[in-house]
Design a protein that fits this description.
The complex is a heterodimer.
Chain A (H helix, E strand, L loop, with lengths): L3 E3 L4 E4 L4 E7 L6 E7 L5 E7 L4 E3 L2 E6 L4 E6 L8 E12 L2 E6 L3 E6 L1
Parallel strand pairs in A: 2-11
Antiparallel strand pairs in A: 1-3, 3-8, 4-5, 4-9, 6-7, 7-8, 9-10, 9-11
Chain B lengths: L4 E3 L2 E4 L5 E6 L6 E7 L6 E7 L2 E4 L8 E4 L6 E5 L8 E8 L1 E3 L5 E3 L3 E2 L3 E5 L1
Parallel strand pairs in B: 2-13
Antiparallel strand pairs in B: 1-3, 3-8, 4-5, 4-9, 5-6, 7-8, 9-12, 9-13, 10-11
The chains are: A mainly beta, B mainly beta.
C-alpha cells in the first residue's frame, strides 16, 4: 500500500465548475500536510498547507481529518489556469527536526472552455 | 531572491557512464533534499542534508549513488555507473529551520528546483 494515495484522474471540468480532490495517508505519525501544484515538465510548487481546522486561500479550500487520515482540496470557480497536477504531500519527521516529504502520484486536472 | 537552481537541465548518457547533477539551494537554507521521479511513479525522497551533514539517506537506491555537500552550500549527486532504471527527473529542494511557538524548532516550506531530466540509454 502506498503511503499517500490519490485518485490519478484526469478530472476534466468546465470553467467555473467546483472540483474536489481527496487523498489518504497511512503514517499516523505524519505531522504536516500540503497540496503542491505541478505544471507539465515543471517543479512542484506549494499551493497551500493543510491544517486540522481547515483553511482557505481564495478559491482553494483544504481540509484535514486526522482521525480518518484524509486530506481534501476544493477548488471553486475553476479557471483554465488551474489545469495542472495536484500533489498531496505529507511531511513525516524521522529524527529531531529532520523530515522528508512523501508524495502521492498526483491528480491531473484539466479545465476546459 | 534566487530560487533553487539545478544543473544540467537535461542529461542523456549511455548505460555504464557517470553523471553528476548539481543543486544550488536558496541562500541561507541549511536543509537540502534530493528527490527523484521515475516515469509513472510518484516523487520519492532520496536524501537530506543539514548543512554539510547527511541527516537521512534512507531513500538512496544503492551504492551507485553518491551525494555530497562540501562546505554546506551546493550539493552534487553522482550516479556511477548509470543504469537504465536511473532515468527520471531528479529534483532538489531546500528549506530553512526556524523557531516557532514555545521555541520549538521546525522546518519551513521546501522549495523545489526545476529538476534535471536524466535519460540513460
Amino acid at each position: 500500500r502506498k503511503e499517500v494515495e490519490q485518485d490519478p484522474g484526469p478530472f476534466n471540468v468546465p470553467e467555473g465548475a467546483t472540483v474536489a480532490f481527496n487523498c489518504t495517508y497511512s503514517n499516523s505519525a505524519s505531522q504536516s500536510f500540503f497540496w503542491y501544484r505541478q505544471d507539465c515538465r515543471k517543479e512542484p510548487k506549494l499551493l497551500m498547507s493543510v491544517y486540522s481546522s481547515g483553511n482557505e486561500d481564495g478559491r482553494f479550500t483544504a481540509q484535514l481529518n486526522r482521525a480518518s487520515q484524509y486530506i481534501s482540496l476544493l477548488i471553486r470557480d475553476s479557471k483554465l489556469s488551474d489545469s495542472a497536477t495536484y500533489l498531496c504531500v505529507v511531511n513525516s519527521p524521522h529524527s529531531g527536526t529532520a523530515s522528508k516529504l512523501t508524495f502521492g502520484t498526483g491528480t491531473r486536472l484539466q479545465v476546459t472552455l | 531572491e534566487a530560487g533553487v537552481t539545478q544543473f544540467p537541465s537535461h542529461s542523456v548518457i549511455e548505460k555504464g557512464q557517470t553523471v553528476t547533477l548539481r543543486c544550488d539551494p536558496i541562500s541561507g537554507h541549511d536543509n537540502l533534499y534530493w528527490y527523484r521521479r521515475v516515469m509513472g511513479k510518484e516523487i520519492k525522497f532520496l536524501l537530506h542534508f543539514v548543512k554539510e551533514s547527511k541527516q537521512d539517506e534512507s531513500g538512496m537506491p544503492n551504492n551507485r549513488f553518491l551525494a555530497e555537500r562540501t562546505g554546506g552550500t551546493y550539493s552534487t549527486l553522482k550516479v556511477q555507473p548509470a543504469e537504465l532504471e536511473d532515468s527520471g527527473v531528479y529534483f532538489c529542494a531546500s528549506s530553512q529551520d526556524k523557531f516557532g511557538d514555545w521555541t520549538r524548532l521546525y522546518q519551513e516550506t521546501q522549495y523545489f528546483g526545476p529538476g534535471t531530466r536524466l535519460l540513460v540509454l
